[in-house]
Amino acid sequence: MRAAAILLFGVVSLLAQPAKIDSRWAPLEFLLGDWIGEGGGGPGEGSGGFAFRPDQGGAILIRKNLAHYPATRDKPAYSHTDLLIVYRDSGDTNLRAIYFDDEDHTIHYMVQPSADGNAVQFLSDAATSQPRYRLTYRKTGEDRVTIQFEIAPPGKDFVTYIEASARRKPR
Q1: What would be the CATH architecture of the domain defined by 22-168?
Q2: Average pLDDT, integer, range 30-41
């Protein structure tokens, strides 16, 4: 009976410990967790949140995002969902990502963490007849980030499409 209690206590202790992050995701560790968008509520401003979590035994990171946008003079209220999968190809040290959304967009990204570990940029692959996309997360506090999504039409500079901030939900 005592052995069973010790075994049970050991299992409970293991389950209670936070999972160790795989070293390949260290540059993105500041993004792990559940996030809530801040602000919003004004004309054209959205609300929502996202979560970054390891999946497939730590082989990939998944970000699921949900945004709600209020009605405007030109458009009814709507919601947007998307999925971003961060991975590393076999034998490659560079991180890549692929994005899918409910508007039938698919975007392939190179993932470029900053040297100081406080930002990460997702930069879409170049294609002559397609726009480029740049998604940047920047740590602004212990549990806060800013998000900037930019679009560059073919042959033009990037223009900010969305700017937002988020705070991590308590763990």
Answers
A1: Beta Barrel (2.40)
A2: 85
